[in-house]
Every structure is written in structure tokens, then in C-alpha cells.
Amino acid sequence: VRYIRLLKLTDEVRKLCRQYGVLYQDIVMLQPTRILRRKNIEFGIRVLAELKKAGHKVVYLVTGAPDAHNPAARDYGRELRKLACELGVEDEFHFLSEAFEISDEDLVSIYNVSDVLFLPSRQEGFGLPLLEAGVFRIPVFCARVEPMCSILENNVNLFDLDESPGRVAARVVDTLGKDPGCRARKEVIKHYSWERLFDERIRPLFLD
After folding, report:
1. Sequence-ordered strand ranges (E) for the chain
2. Using CA atoms, how far apart are residues 43 and 49, in angstroms rounded to an integer?
3. What pLDDT score was predicted for residue 183?
4. What residue ranges in 34-133 does DSSP mark as E strands?
5. Is 119 helix (H, G, I), strand (E, B) or coil?
6. How many CA atoms lie within 13 A of 81 on its CB side?
7. CB within 8 A of 116, min separation 6: which ones?
8. How many Å apart are CA 81 and CA 90, to the nearest integer?
């Protein structure tokens, strides 16, 4: 389908989208980060759980993977997986680098299929992902910490680290619901994708 080609998805990201149904999710959360405790990924998992509880189809994509040679990262990765299981979102939470090594071209593709950049970090350096999100025109949700508060003025939604995951989840839904570009893309994918047409109209013919 031509509109899928316009996303310029790499082969690896195309496989990822097919495996996890990324293009058909209501919300695709992206956190491009390494697996470090200061990245506060557990807060994102709790927001993910609140979104799922509210009835939304959602996935949370973290680009990094637990470093097998770093005991601290490995332990943190296990804790995150355990939390995802406890909250019932183990099928919606993914470490992308466990599936493939992410190239610059892959990262562009991942941004192209994401709806929101989510950065709940307790501490950050320069904040490059905010600039990347600005280029790809996707809204940012990030913790109210420096330098994140000072990088961009537009399309950035700040939250306090002690804010409830449920409240942040509601703000994500409200922000995306008011974004006509996001709504238009979801409408195109829902009604006009080849995969959806095949699954709904052609595949049943072979099952009868």
C-alpha cells in the first residue's frame, strides 16, 4: 500500500509492526533510552497500564535493552519485566534492541510509527530526543526536570515526578485526541491499510 511506503519503514521495523500490531494501536509510546534506573521506565509502565485499563490499545516501545554485561542494567531490566507482568501489560511493553540492533534508519522508522515521545526520567543530559520529536512532529510527555523544561516551547507536556500515572495517562489521551494529524493517520490506517482489508475481508474467505 502506497501510504505504508511513505513511512519508509526498514525491514526490521516493518517486521516489528507486524509482530506487535504497532500500526493498529490507539497509542504508540516511545522512549528512546538506555536501560538505566534514572530513566524511570517503571513510571512509563504504570502509565501504560492505566491506558490499557481505560480500554485503549497501546504499546510502549523502549529502544534500549538490558545489558547482559552490566549487572545493574540486567537487574533493572528484570524488575521492569516483573512489574509489566504484575500490571498485566507484559504483551504491550517491549525492549526493541532485544529483537535487533537499531540503526539510524531504524530509529527514523520507529519515530514515524510512534504517537508520543514519553520521557519520565528523573535526570537527563542534553535531551536530544525532544529535538528529534520536534522534527517528527510528535507530542512529548516528559518529567519536569532540567534541561527538559528549557529545550522546546511547543508540543511539550510536562508532568511532575509525583503526579499519578492515571492523571498522566488521561493527559496523553486528551492531547492525542485533540491532534488532527494523529487522528487522520489513525483513520487512514484503520480504514485503508492492505493488512486490515486482508484480515477483515479476504482472510475469512479462506477460513470458511
Report:
1. 27-31, 58-62, 93-95, 116-119, 140-143, 156-159
2. 10
3. 86
4. 58-62, 93-95, 116-119
5. strand
6. 11
7. 27, 28, 29, 30, 138, 139, 140, 141, 172, 175, 176
8. 7
- Give the model confidence (pLDDT) of 127-174 as tens digits: 788 888 888 899 999 999 888 888 877 888 999 999 999 999 999 999
CA distances from 9 to 69, 76, 116, 194 (A): 31, 30, 18, 15
How many other CB atoms are there within 10 angstroms of residue 27's CB atom? 23
In degrees and rounded to multiples of 5, residue 117 shows phi and psi of -90, 125
The residue to which cell 542494567 is assigned = 73
Residue 189: the pLDDT is 74
Closest CA to 110 of 96, 98, 124, 99: 96
Beta strand 93-95 pairing with 116-119: unpaired
Supply the pLDDT for residue 182: 84
- Residue 66: CB atoms within 10 A of its CB come to 21
Query: Residue 39, SS3?
Result: helix
Residues in Cβ contact with 30 at an 8 Å cutoff, skipping those fewer than 6 apart: 61, 63, 110, 111, 114, 116, 117, 118, 138
Say how many C-beta atoms besides its own lie within 10 A of residue 54's C-beta. Answer: 13
Look-up: residue for cell 530509529? 107
**Mean pLDDT (whole number) for 41-60:** 97
Please check the confidence at residue 202 and state whether its pLDDT lies above 80. no
**Which of the two residues, 28 and 154, has the higher pLDDT score?**
28
